[in-house]
Amino acid sequence: MSAYKTAGGALPPATESGVASDITHGGDLGAARAMFPGAPEPLIDLSTGINPNPYPLPALSADLFARLPDSTALAKLAAAAAANYGAPSAAHVVAAPGTQILLPLIAGLVRPGCAAVLSPTYAEHIRAAQLARHAVREASGVGALAEADLAIVTNPNNPDGRLLGKDELRGVARKLAGRGGLLVIDEAFMDVGPDGASFAGDVASGNVVVLRSFGKFFGLAGVRLGFALAAPPLAARIASLLGPWAVSGPALAIGTRALSDRAWIEATRANLTRAAKRLDAILVGAGLEIVGGTTLFRLVRSSVAAALFQHLGRAGIFVRRFANRPDWLRFGLPAGEPDWQRLQQAMAAFTGAAPPPVKTAPEHANPEGDEHASAAAPSANFDDAFRARLRDLLAWRRDVRRFLRDPFPDGALERLIAFAGLAPSVGLSQPWRFVIVNDPARRAAIRDNFTACNAQALAAQATERAGLYAKLKLAGLEEAPAHIAVFADRSTEQGHGLGRHTMPEMIDYSAVTAVHTIWLAARAQGIGMGWVSILDPEAVTAILEVPEDWKFIGYFCIGYPRTDDKVPELERAGWEYRRQAPSTLIQR
Ligand SMILES: Cc1cc2nc3c(=O)[nH]c(=O)nc-3n(C[C@H](O)[C@H](O)[C@H](O)COP(=O)(O)O)c2cc1C
Fold first, then answer.
1. Which structural domain, as residue segments, surrounds residue 237?
2. Which of 160, 397, 438, 479 makes the best surface tag, with the fewest CB within 10 Å?
3. Which atom of ligand 1 is nearest to the CA of 576?
């Protein structure tokens, strides 16, 4: 007890001003469904670091639910935890309904002073220290920890997997002890850490608390079970703050059985290692840079992280993003083969057309740039699986007119347009010109022009078709978050006139190939595009104030589609149907 300063009084109220709030955590499938309403079910939750293949639940006696938890059962659980985690004895173990509840209690063991949290890390540590009225500093290095009254490290760290050595931690603990400080080591993911890396065997030194989470490795987060490991006097103090019956009878039974099941524990560690390698292959194959993790999750860094988050979400796969690090995504492990397949396909769909892997600088997020960078790479080999997926892409590309209003992440539209650089063009003239139309007044003028032109087109319809025409939705100008107009620059000198002598209109056709390239790239990323041609080209040119030499090719609504369909909208509406190739083919 003498090795740390106690707070003495009651814990501060939860509404203490300056306490971090609104912390986002993984695993909230309700939020995922609200964010991606059209996503296919079942959702795949990769947003946590929880083992997706849990310990098999034992049959539980009804008594466990009917009676208060038994003290003998609690002692057995403590003994099983001590043995499994490597704590000196059961007297060094405090069982709790999850470690989360312990954080403010333990932070409150130290008189309000300075808390240093080795960051970035699990955000609740900062909130807990603030609740205990500490002035909290986020430390970027171990050195700053020893100067605090309360030092908190997560080891291995979430989300980057950084691992501190025991000697380093012993040094911090020693320095803190000299000043009456406390070291908290959150070993929530140590079950999958290297052998011998846990500090559990060192807690007897007196001013160290090690936290162990049951739910993550055993995949039973809902059981709410966790442990504090500490020297017996400190452990007793924590236990008294928790009070009696903190851990439910069913949790005692499940925890004791699971923690003693060496065979399952060893097999699971091996399975998780294999699964993490498989996840690595998918992530690396998609060109993502893995910057850390444990075998329960991987952290990747990418400048297209925001677009990938959206893409996966729309495919029903929920990963963890970080408010302060928009370039990070954390991937948990898929549960079984169907989930692995869905992840693999969704990643392939993203990379099939998404900007290529971005290692560092944003300028690499340009498909053209990557082509040049990889000039020395071997030529691409497309296999049968790819060919099948390409056909899927062509079959599932749609002209989209019904959009969600969700905006694109910053830069996503520009990156999509950059795919035009891969399109063919006469004489390599690249004559396409794109105008992103953001100005509300210009958008309104385009809408008005469409309305007028569409009314004229309706009036020109034969009587028997007019009724059906009037019902067609022929543009998504109102809802689509992005609008672009495409022009062909007929005056461009690029290409030195090659191929245009007899057919100057080849410049326009080249711009159309760019449109189609973007159309496919967009679809591969779950983005829909709709062509609006019911417009007066002269009016559009005037509204957008572009050079007169630019020939208007088309106006496009772009956004996340409300639905996916293999059948064109006009076919579904009964206007026209897609013929098979023979009717468009003659032989000479
Ligand atoms: C040059 C061109 C102009 C188009 N203009 C419009 C248009 O003004 N409004 C519309 O709703 N669809 C327009 N479309 C979309 C077609 O109606 C659509 O491509 C066709 O029905 C086949 O459907 P799919 O693209 O979903 O396969 C246009 C398509 C092309 C290629």
1. 63-260
2. 438
3. 21
